[in-house]
UniProtKB/TrEMBL annotation:
Domain N-acetyltransferase: 4-154
Protein name: GNAT family N-acetyltransferase
Lineage: Bacteria, Pseudomonadati, Bacteroidota, Flavobacteriia, Flavobacteriales
Entry GO MF terms: N-acetyltransferase activity
Native source species: Flagellimonas pelagia
Keywords: Transferase
Record InterPro entries: Acyl_CoA_acyltransferase (IPR016181), GNAT_dom (IPR000182), NAT_camello-type (IPR050769)
Classification via PANTHER family: GNAT FAMILY N-ACETYLTRANSFERASE, LD18367P
Domain of life: Bacteria
SUPFAM superfamilies: Acyl-CoA N-acyltransferases (Nat)
Keyword Transferase annotated: yes
PROSITE patterns reported in the protein's UniProt record: GNAT (PS51186)
Length: 154
């Protein structure tokens, strides 16, 4: 992880946000309309309401991203975490998750929620490592999601 650093959103990096997320979604699932909207319009879907998007860079190359979508003043959704497959195994996902948690604390968020799929074992491992707990999932958020997790931030 020593050559990986995290940087805030820059408009010229939007194509990476879209590419990395589409790659994992389309590899395992079907891209949903909400995915396409968020990935092609992140400024409107994530940033304009107080959300954040962070990028992982390895030797100045963008290799991953994660978003924090504002739900309300106390809650954000950790969403769209993706790392370029060519850079898996370097710890970028862990560093992105850690940086997202630090950003949430900085924003004085009380709780993070996320939606995932139980088949995505590496992602689940990262979330559990940071203390996310599985909770009942409501219907209709994402068709592919079968798991909801939350983390109360101290």
């Amino acid at each position: 992880m020593t050559n990986i650093h995290i940087a805030p959103y820059r408009p010229e990096w939007q194509p990476y946000f879209e590419k990395f997320n589409k790659a994992w979604i389309e590899k395992h699932f079907v891209l949903e309309a909400i995915d396409n909207y968020v990935l092609t319009h992140p400024e409107e879907a994530i940033l304009k309401d107080g959300g954040e998007i962070l990028f992982a860079l390895h030797n100045q190359t963008v290799i991953g991203a994660v978003a924090l979508k504002k739900i309300d003043n106390a809650t954000m959704e950790l969403t769209k975490m993706a790392v370029d497959e060519a850079f898996h195994g370097l710890g970028a996902g862990t560093k992105l998750c850690k940086s997202a948690l630090e950003k949430a604390k900085e924003l004085e968020v009380k709780k993070l929620v996320l939606y995932t799929q139980s088949a995505l074992k590496p992602a689940l491992s990262i979330y559990k490592k940071f203390g996310f707990q599985q909770i009942p999932i409501e219907q209709g958020i994402y068709k592919r999601a079968d798991t909801k997790m939350e983390l109360n931030i101290k």
